[in-house]
Specification:
The structure holds 2 protein chains of 2 kinds.
Chain A (H helix, E strand, L loop, with lengths): L2 H24 L9 H17 L28 H8 L6 E6 L5 E4 H6 L3 E8 L5 E10 H8 L7 E6 L5 E4 H4 L5 E6 L2 E2 L9 E3 L12 E7 L12 H4 L9
Parallel strand pairs in A: 1-10
Antiparallel strand pairs in A: 1-2, 3-4, 4-7, 5-6, 5-10, 7-8, 7-9
Chain B lengths: L9 H25 L4 E2 L13 E2 L10 H24 L10 H23 L3 H6 L2 H4 L4 H40 L6
Antiparallel strand pairs in B: 1-2
The chains are: A alpha+beta, B mainly alpha.
């Protein structure tokens, strides 16, 4: 191969790769933590799964007899002064603020949230550590709240901020999934404090750490570059994948 | 190029060493993930405080190793799968210098055990099982798939140890040279 041919082939290859990356990004196949050597694996996994799971099937649902007797808890409730005050007041002062790329920003009380159409589902949840359990969750589909707020057409992600540092984001396909809930009930009772009271996110198609507890506010956005370190959520900042559908 | 008609073809040598690297990465990262929860269950669920199938005699304290462990495990898995498909499609089994027991073992490893580790791995994906539930229900649940994943991986490690032992008995240096340069050792 001549040097000229080698350079031409190299340039053509690089251009093809750049075009492929732009197309993949446009169709939402590139995760925010795509950088570095591990980013190659993350991009392959996220891109492949988004193509394979394009048609929104529901996660498996179970019957009541399969509900786990023990549900372990990772982490403690936020020590944040505001959270402790809201907890002491039985969350009557708590509001879920929904903003960002929406037509009508919302500020919902717990009572208002509970008055919205709800969904109850018995689903499996696995922790990245290896353990898993089945539980019944009750809550409002995130898609319902997003429709109330009126999401702008260009929005790509929904970011969930809790009262502690463990903020997360999910893409629109997962946010609009019918089983993605703002959960306020667990096994027929109020969501217990260690499980994320008053309201937590439940993403049935991803590992447990994506299901943010102790929700404070929600932001709809078209880019995650300006939030935190720009990796999409708190997880990649401490060494865990942004996408946890594995 | 005359040597390649007797020794290992370039494609076999290339895929062999890529496979070696990806498998070692999978084992190391797999152990890192396992150390967070060295306990196995059967069925759909399993937690500390509930019944287990068996516990490995290891502490539960090394939870901090799963971050890089998972990143490396899934990157190496992609290399393992793509490289494995290349290896199988290169027609390795048609080669005459393998004995019958060798050929059966290699077939079992490449067509049963290795695909089983990949399948049981995918069966632990909450996103994929929501679209294709049968990939996990066929094993009886997500924890069953995790347990089978562990045993299938153990069998592959066992195969690797036997493989290295046999190569050593047959002449380690000449066989290593054969797999690197393509010059087939005598016999």
């Amino acid at each position: 191969m001549t040097r000229r041919k080698l350079i031409t082939t190299g340039l053509a290859g690089a251009s093809a790769l750049a075009v492929a990356a732009r197309i993949a990004d446009r169709y939402g196949l590139i995760p925010p933590d795509h950088g570095g050597i591990y980013g190659i694996g993350e991009t392959l996994t996220y891109g492949a799964q988004r193509l394979l799971t394009a048609h929104h099937s529901l996660a498996r649902e179970f019957n009541r007899s399969q509900i786990s007797k023990v549900i372990p808890v990772n982490g403690d409730p936020p020590e944040h002064e505001t959270y402790q005050r809201l907890l002491a007041g039985g969350f009557t002062e708590w509001r879920l603020n929904v903003g960002g790329m929406v037509a009508r920003p919302l500020s919902l009380s717990l009572a208002q949230l509970k008055a919205l159409p709800s969904r109850t589902q018995i689903t499996h949840q696995a922790c990245e550590e290896g353990w898993s359990f089945i539980a019944e969750w009750t809550g409002v589909p995130v898609s319902y709240v997003l429709n109330l707020a009126g999401v702008h057409p260009g929005a790509k992600y929904v970011v969930f901020f809790p009262f502690d540092t463990s903020w997360e984001s999910i893409d629109m396909p997962d946010a609009l999934h019918p089983q993605t809930l703002l959960a306020y009930g667990l096994n027929g009772k109020e969501l217990p404090t260690p499980h994320g009271a008053p309201v937590r996110l439940r993403v049935a198609s991803q590992l447990g750490y994506k299901s943010v507890k102790y929700l404070s506010h929600i932001t709809v956005t078209d880019t995650l570059k300006n939030i935190g370190k720009g990796l999409g959520s708190y997880s990649p900042e401490i060494g865990y994948s942004w996408y946890a559908g594995i | 190029m005359a040597d390649s008609t007797h020794g290992h073809p370039a494609i076999v040598r290339f895929t062999h060493w890529i496979n070696t690297l990806s498998f070692l990465a999978l084992v190391v990262s797999g152990v890192a993930i396992l150390l967070a929860h060295p306990r196995f269950y059967w069925g759909e669920t399993g937690v500390v405080g509930g019944p287990s199938l068996f516990d490995l005699p290891l502490p539960f304290i090394l939870t901090g190793q799963t971050g890089w462990g998972r990143y490396l495990h899934f990157l190496a898995a992609w290399v393992f799968v793509i490289n494995g498909l290349l290896y199988v499609s290169s027609g390795i089994f048609s080669r005459a210098f393998y004995s019958r027991p060798q050929r059966i073992t290699y077939l079992a490893v490449t067509l049963v055990l290795a695909p089983l580790t990949v399948w049981t791995g995918l069966a632990m994906s909450p996103a994929l099982t929501s679209v294709y539930p049968s990939i996990v229900t066929v094993f009886g649940g997500q924890q069953s798939a995790r347990t089978i994943h562990f045993f299938a991986a153990d069998m592959l490690v066992l195969f690797l140890l036997v493989h290295i032992t046999m190569v050593s008995l047959a002449g380690f240096t000449s066989h290593m040279r054969g797999m690197i340069t393509g010059n087939e050792p005598a016999g």
